[in-house]
Here is the input.
Amino acid sequence: MKMSPTEHLAPAAFAWGTKAGTLLALRDRLRHGSLPPCWSVTVQQWRADPAAVLAEVSRRWSGQAIAVRSSAQFEDSERRSAAGAYLSRLQVNASHEAEVRQAAQDVANAMPGLPGDEILFQTMVAPVSACGVVMTFDMANGAPYYVISYDDESGRTDQVTAGRGLHKTVLVYRAAPNSLLKSARIRAIVALARELEALTRCQTLDIEFALDAQGVIHLLQVRRIAAARNWHPVTERRVARQLEQAERFVRERSLPRSGVLGHRTLLAMMPDWNPAEIIGITPRPLAASLYRDLITAASWRQARASMGYRDVAGEELMVLLNHHPYIDVRNSFNSFVPAAVPDALGAAVVDAWIDRLDAHPEYHDKVEFEIVPTCLDFAFEQHWQQRYPGLLQPDALRIWRDALGALTQACLRPAADRPYARSLQAIDALDRLSRQPAHDAATLDALTGMLDLCRRLGAVPFAVIARHAFVAEALLRSAVERGALTSERLALWRTSVPTVTGDLLQQYREVCQGLRPRADFLQVYGHLRPGTYEITSERYDQRADLFQDDEVVPAVPAPVAHFALAPHESRALDTLLREARLDGVDAGALLDFARRAVQGREHAKFVYSRQLSNFLQALAAWGERAGLHREDLSFLPWPLLRDAGVQPVMDDPDRYFLDEANRERQRFEAAHAFRLSHIIRDERDIQVATLNRSEPNFFGRGAITAPVICINGNTPASTPLAGLAVCIESADPGFDWIFSRGPAALVTQFGGANSHMAVRCAELALPAAIGCGEPLFRRLVAARAVTLSCDERWIRPAQE
Here is the structure.
């Protein structure tokens, strides 16, 4: 009968002892790994006769490097783990008596001094090709995954356990068949873990390992996971059921779909409208449903179709897998195909785009710049030949290029009847309406009207304007790539484009200096909140800690008063425009277009977020009258509330909604045990999940080293940030207050090359690494300080 994670056989089944005793008990029984030679003495023996111990160490390991580790009597037990609490000394030269003596003495002094405390001497594995830790269950909640974290770059054996080094994380569902383990390295690690479970008759293990240059896996130590007693007993069964449903969903989602180009799809958290950055990787039901209603149900494709891209009618952009949001990459890529391109040609290209993202998952947050050409930029031909050689015949490629060129030309020369101009008009209308008090938003029906207004006059126009900004960004980046501009000149141009953020920072400083009334500031910016779609997040006008009069507020970087192209830059850009056959546009007009697009996007985003924030405020007021706290509302999907406006709850509405909120809350909390890859290629990624490393997007100039501070939506605005590297998992306009605090740098886990924070940092010339990915972000947050080199495009903990 299968054991549950917390069921163990009688202690006699395996003789758990100290770290040294456990390894010795396994020495002659291990088949799927090797145990480095080891020997131990008690602390009492060491102190009684250190010379004899040193002589024995020299006899056993003369000329070799050894590890000297603690093996305390109560270091690891079924109910208590002291992993990392004591001391280890690595790379000790066994032939150097003074070095061994000092290491042994340090290790002995670090232990409590109980009679059973031991010093463990162990051969160092060398050379090391990979080292790491495997937990046989998720430590946080007991989810049934082998959680494998390993470092295959440093050549050291302590990087993962010490929280240092560039390490990778793979989660393998415990019941996953070996056929799904494509990596020989992962197969070896899982085989070792499964054998140790069988030998120790314990399923909850914490295992440290190292692989040598020949691929042999060495067991360094193994202990029981003491936290297992805190896990919910049904977690394993629940996850098993959910994985089965997720596999079925992914398999069916990737089947051919009528009206959609491409033979398969990928699901990813960060392409396109990037839900991981905007609503998070596990958003609450209200936030997720609002994002769907406003953006990913239809607005995304309606905006692009109006600009001349393919209309993916009836398709949604985002799916939710057990509260985890994913972009359907096939649908996204379809919406970037010019409408004039024939279906057969479009299908071949969409498949090629999907294959490239599959091969390069590090581009999942920058698909418009590394995978999909969404406009005819100045490097189109070079990129196409590099990325998709032989994909299209010359005639077919000409059709594609001409269609993309016509779309780009329409963006660059926006007439009054073009989508861009109409979108600006819609945003201006919403700007006026959103400034008016929502006196009539007392009912669910009225709230539905507010959200409809937000969608029609906000979301769709914002999507159109934002797409023009992407086109501008692609053109300017390719101008740098072709040598018409330098990266330094482009960075200078960015600082010359004033946006709403610069105004916010200047006015904030004036308030803190007593030069502007707080009420004036809050009237304009009071709607902003960290977490644009999250009702539990406080608006600026609800935060008592927003202003600190006695604090010295850092000066706002002065924008470049005027940016003028040098004659040779103008000539180079004009040449590129003629080469691309983008008629009627010269270098000056190109920069004017880019400036209007960037400013228009930031203004549209600001107005859209105001209407949405007002909606959330009105919904909270309705909830208060109905006996529902904001916390309760955050667990209620918007369709449930909306439908109650036309199909009212007839019996005790407050109890009905509270019961629904509690059910959703339980589902939401259970979803955290459900671990998935950030990119899902097919059903095999459901059982073997890789936490993909991302290539950060760097902004700013030079290099900085700064202490780290990690903040979130609940962090007080009074928190000192001056001179610090601010780390945020995902950030939206509501976090703009941080720029008033003089941070030295910004680091985010999620975020694309053209995301909100990317634009902010480029505008302010603030050093930043946007979209670092989970493994690197966690390592940076755990560090005391980080070093960021914008010019050399790297970031790492300062101590490395």
